[in-house]
């Protein structure tokens, strides 16, 4: 199923800019970037953020006449498909993008999709940016897959260290989806919390289709945790867990180290229930660059977006920079090699984005970003720290 809005169409401003170039006798070719992610269902906030943020950047580039590569101008075209957080749909979307749409560059969001497509990406020499948290996404043989922001391997220890210094209580229960992403985050959380003096008394997994968490939470609350860590649980589902746990009498702390979405948590849980929840944040709501991007998102979609949009805006910007450095849109091998020339660079929020990964995966295919620590106050996220 193709994404709900007309991602193939440039904005009116971009169309005018393209017309000007054609009138001047300069033909602008298309540079296609595919998006595979959940645009509906529990993970929709992330999928919509990826598609819309990519489109915003594409429109900005096109409005300036397109991307200059090797003496030519290219209009950046975003083609997004909804995989409904379903691996079979992810594979079908990949095949459409590559075989029908002629896409050489794409974003693959989820861990399940990333693992299903990892080998095909390498075989087809498609340059893919993944936002998957699974540690198996990258390895020493990875050449065409790049992770577009820091994952728990890079930041979760810093997050746990911050919690050690700033919260009371040491009994922790982790709750994650029962899939590749959830397993990885659960393992990282277990190590990080234990290394910082916490007692991880239980690690719970749930199916992504689950809505009733009362049996699970009854068991969890009986363990008397000081912290319930929601890990990579989708934001809307995290809100359900928070609300149902409060209804069962849990009064202590919730934390969420992955897949942030405080607004969606508040929407599902209610501001009172969500009060005090500590989140990993991809953006500082007070940052000028983020506020500009968030305003553009709301203008395009008609509602507030998940702040993870900054990662996709920056990720596509890095990709376009690497394409320019490589001097080609056709040779993805040269573009992959050019990531080392494209980075470091500044994020839309002004933080430095670097390239790494050799220490963790045996290949420098990991984009290293700055993340923020926020707390929900009166229904809004407020930044109270950073992870390194």
CATH architecture tag of the largest domain:
3-Layer(aba) Sandwich
- Please, how many helices? 15
State the separation between the terminal residues, measured CA to CA: 38 Å
Tally of separate domains:
2
At the third CATH level, what is the topology name of the largest domain?
Rossmann fold
The global form is globular
Number of DSSP strand runs = 16
CATH-defined superfamily of the largest domain: Response regulator
Main sheet properties: 7 strands, mixed
Average pLDDT number: 91
Give, in spatial order, the strands making up the sheet with the most strands: 8-7-9-10-11-15-16
Q: Hey, roughly how much beta strand do the residues contain? A: 15-25%
Whole-number radius of gyration?
21 Å
Q: Assign the CATH class of the largest domain.
A: Alpha Beta
- Approximately how much helix is present in the residues? 40-55%
Helix and strand content put the structural class at: alpha/beta
Q: Could you name the ranges where pLDDT drops below 50 across 5 or more consecutive residues?
A: 1-26
Summarize, please:
This protein is of the alpha/beta class. It has 15 helices and 16 strands.
Write out key terms for the chains shown:
Rossmann fold, seven-stranded mixed β-sheet, six-stranded mixed β-sheet, disordered N terminus
Description:
This protein is an alpha/beta fold and 388 residues long. The chain contains 15 helices and 16 strands. The protein has helices at 12-23, 44-63, 87-100, 111-124, 152-166, 180-195, 214-222, 235-247, 262-269, 271-274, 288-301, 309-326, 332-337, 339-342, 358-361, and strands at residues 29-37, 67-69, 72-82, 105-108, 127-130, 145-147, 171-177, 199-206, 227-229, 253-256, 278-281, 345-346, 352-356, 366-368, 371-377, 380-387. It has a seven-stranded mixed beta sheet with strand order 8-7-9-10-11-15-16. Strand 4 (105-108), helix 4 (111-124) and strand 5 form a beta-alpha-beta unit. The chain is globular and about 65 Å long.
């Amino acid at each position: 199923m193709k994404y709900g809005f007309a991602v193939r169409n440039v904005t009116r401003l971009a169309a005018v800019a393209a017309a000007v170039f054609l009138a001047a006798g300069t033909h602008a070719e298309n540079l296609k970037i595919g998006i595979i992610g959940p645009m509906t269902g529990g993970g929709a906030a992330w999928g919509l953020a990826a598609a819309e943020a990519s489109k915003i950047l594409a429109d900005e580039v096109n409005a300036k006449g397109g991307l200059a590569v090797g003496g030519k101008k290219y209009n950046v075209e975003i083609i997004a498909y909804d995989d409904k957080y379903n691996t079979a749909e992810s594979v079908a979307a990949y095949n459409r993008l590559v075989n029908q749409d002629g896409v050489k560059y794409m974003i693959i969001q989820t861990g399940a999709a990333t693992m299903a497509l990892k080998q095909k990406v390498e075989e087809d020499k498609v340059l893919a940016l993944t936002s998957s948290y699974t540690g198996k996404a990258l390895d020493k043989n990875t050449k065409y897959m790049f992770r577009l922001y820091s994952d728990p391997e890079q930041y979760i220890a810093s997050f746990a260290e911050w919690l050690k210094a700033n919260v009371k209580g040491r009994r922790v229960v982790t709750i994650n989806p029962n899939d590749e992403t959830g397993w990885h985050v659960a393992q990282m959380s277990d190590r990080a919390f234990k290394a910082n003096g916490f007692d991880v008394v239980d690690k719970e997994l749930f199916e992504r289709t689950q809505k009733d968490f009362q049996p699970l939470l009854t068991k969890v609350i009986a363990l008397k945790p000081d912290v319930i860590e929601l890990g990579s649980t989708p934001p809307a589902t995290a809100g359900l867990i928070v609300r149902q746990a409060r209804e069962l009498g849990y009064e202590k702390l919730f934390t969420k180290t992955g897949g942030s979405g405080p607004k969606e948590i508040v929407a599902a849980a209610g501001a009172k229930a969500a009060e005090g929840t500590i989140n990993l944040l991809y953006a500082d709501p007070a940052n000028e660059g983020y506020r500009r991007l968030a305003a553009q998102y709301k203008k395009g979609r008609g509602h507030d977006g998940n702040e993870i949009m900054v990662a996709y805006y920056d990720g596509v910007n890095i990709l376009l920079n690497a394409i320019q450095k490589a001097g080609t849109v056709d040779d993805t091998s040269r573009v992959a090699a050019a990531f080392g020339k494209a980075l470091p660079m500044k994020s839309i929020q002004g933080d430095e984005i670097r390239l790494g990964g050799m220490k963790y995966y045996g290949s420098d295919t990991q984009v290293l970003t700055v993340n923020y620590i926020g707390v929900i106050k009166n229904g809004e996220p407020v930044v109270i720290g950073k992870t390194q």
